[in-house]
Amino acid sequence: MPHTRPIFTPPVVLRWGFVLVGITAVSLILIIASGQLDPQPIGTATASLTPGVQPIPTQSKTVQWLALPDPGHVFTVRGTAVFTETADIRGGLRLGTSTQAFDVLISPSGYAAIRAGAAELFPYQPWPHVRADENEIWVDVQEQVITVRVNREWLWSGTVTFPLSQIGLVAESFITMPTSIDWQTVTLYQPTAQN
User: Fold this and answer.
1) Residue 80 lies in a domain
2) Which residues partner with 53 through β-bridges?
3) What DSSP state is assigned to residue 48?
4) How far apart are the first and last CA of the chain?
5) How far apart are CA 146 and CA 21, in angstroms?
6) 89-96: strand order across its sheet
7) CATH number of the domain residue 111 falls in
8) Which of 7, 64, 149, 151 has the most CB atoms within 10 Å of its CB?
9) pTM value?
10) Which secondary-structure segment (H or E) carries 3?
11) Which domain covers residue 88, as residue numbers?
12) What is the pLDDT of residues 154-195, one digit of tens each?
């Protein structure tokens, strides 16, 4: 009878290790797909508006302050906008006052910028998460520390030392025809103690 070599079988520990790695990978994929690891707003929604279409005259800058309550020192504001043109325009959220403002601007050409007064905190540059149509701008404020996300992707974190007591919409046009941005929602979130 010829001598046959036994077929190699991995040890039981190795087989169970592969099973455990597979279960872990599937679990992580399901958790990520369900949104469990997505960032959450600070607190609960306390006010929401549907601003609608914000007209932008030819080669101009417009600011529209919203009828939202004073957000306090700790809050989240999220705005969802749809660009109606793919032209050279910028639009976004403004926090601050009529004399000092913090602007988060995006463009349908895929650019983003962040300004605090005259200071360019995030100079106007391409940002891969900006879309040509619908975009969400998300700003978390915790005292003077601000975090900005565009379409749920982190864009910038830093500090701003002036009060952010009002919330508005800002738009700039560099083209020779009127255009607009369609603001679908702007929602303010605040901790329960601030309500």
Assistant:
1) yes
2) 182
3) E
4) 87
5) 38
6) 61-65, 166-173, 89-96, 101-106, 111-116, 119-126
7) 2.60.120.560
8) 149
9) 0.79
10) none
11) 44-194
12) 999 999 998 899 999 999 988 888 888 999 999 999 998 644
